[in-house]
Amino acid sequence: MNEIIADVLVIGGGMAAGWAAISAAKTGARVVIADKGFMGTSGVTAPAGPNHWWVPPEQELRKAAVERRLESAFGLADPAWMERIIDITWRSIPEIAPWYPFSGDGKGGTFRSGLRGPEYLRALRQYATKLGVTVLDQYPVLELLARQDGSIGGVAGYDRLNDRPWNARTGAVILATGGCAFRSGLLGSHNNTGDGYLMGVEAGAELSGMEFCVSYSISPAWLSTRTLPYTGARYFNSEGQLLSIPGWDKPRDYLCKLADAFRAGPVYADLHEAPVGLPAVVREIQPATVAAFERRGLDMFQDRFEVKLFGEGTIRGVGGLRIVNNVCATSVPGLFAAGDAATREHIAGATSGGGAQNAAWALSSGVLSGTGAAHEAKRRRKTLDWNEKLKPLGSAGLRPSGTVKAVDRKAAIQTAQKETLDLDKALWRNETRLKSSASLLDKAWSEIRASLHGEKLETVSARETAAIVATARWCNASAQVRKESRGMHVREDYPQQNPEYQSRIITGGLDRITPYLEKLRIPKAAS
Question: Which of the four, 87, 288, 440, 495, has the lowest number of CB atoms within 10 Å?
Answer without folding.
Answer: 495
